[in-house]
Amino acid sequence: MEPLTIISEGHLIDNGLLSEILNLIITEGFDYTIDNFQFGKRPENTSRIEISISGAEPKEVLLSKLTPLGVFEKGASEGEFHVVDLDRHAPEGFYSTTNHRSEVFTGGRWVPVEEQRMDAAVLRSGDRLLCTKLRDLKKGDEVLCGSDSVRVYPPRVEGKAENFSFMSNEVSSERSYAVAAARIADDLRRLKERGGRTVVVCGPVVVHTGGKEALAAMIREGYIQGFLGGNAVAVHDLEDFFYGTSLGVDTKSGEPTHGGHNHHMRAINRIYGYGSIRGAIEAGDLTGGLMYQVIQSGIPYCLAGSIRDDGPLPETVNDMIEAQRQYAEIIKETDMLLMLSSMLHSIGTGNMTPSWVKTVCVDINPAVVTKLSDRGSGQAIGVVSDVGFFLRELCSQLGIEYSVPDVS
Asked: Which of 95, 93, 130, 124 is nearest to 107 (CA)?
């Protein structure tokens, strides 16, 4: 076959990206020659390399594996767009997107892809290119096929892997959560000052570990601009407010309470008496807690339902497609995601999130962060900590005061 000439530009040396590219070429059974290499001498300088590749396999096989590393073909070919024949059915060989910033060579120029997310098709809509889920494709749509015309910009290529440089993607319980909280607090201050957006993905463990008052205080003080969770976090927040328990365990003493196993059901029933959580607030029955602060602050939120839910609460979105849509809408233009002890919701949110969004996953279990990275959210930084301790420390670093209300 004719030699394939590829180009890679960006921060290739200090993050090991060049070695990864060359190793992949050899591992896949190809050979290469470096034709031109412009080395960036200073940290702020980028490098550029041209590589000729020879081998027996079709070039498309190797190029499709190199594309996610920011490699593109020299003299890129015009993007091929094929017509969708049936609703929800992309043409064979459609390009499946990554969560990295991407461009497609079409019309003689590189055109940016909008609404970037992983596992989508690239839809051509007039002069725009849009990441589109398969389920949203309509007959007659034009979809990109093949990866020859695609250029991808992983954070490492753009030198953005230094975000949260105090941590690496390696997860370790030896890392001081207080140090991590101090650095994250600095980012939260900067985002608040410039009108940025931080969205929380929250699990019920935040309530179980006594972190909800700290998180509610952060929402009250304007550090959080969106709230994502499931039915459980809201139910146990309400149970804690009304009865002082979470899963029937006293949240102050840590002791099980007599008959406490049914408190969460009583909390759900109490809300149904008002028609909604907002109804309970307007009636004056619900005057504090996490969901109270979310609703009173007016930030967008979504509680996504699951097969495990009791009730569920009136606000819980039980249509999974609609819940995904609301999640995706809330995380648009987000600068930072704080994922707080919720593995399934965190992985789901990560799949919708571009790789340039700062993502911090706090969990007592290191495997949660590893699973998040394994499922494509390689930008996720892990903080191994009890989430309640972490949130209280974060509030302390931000200088936020809050109190734990007594249960009547």
From this structure: 124
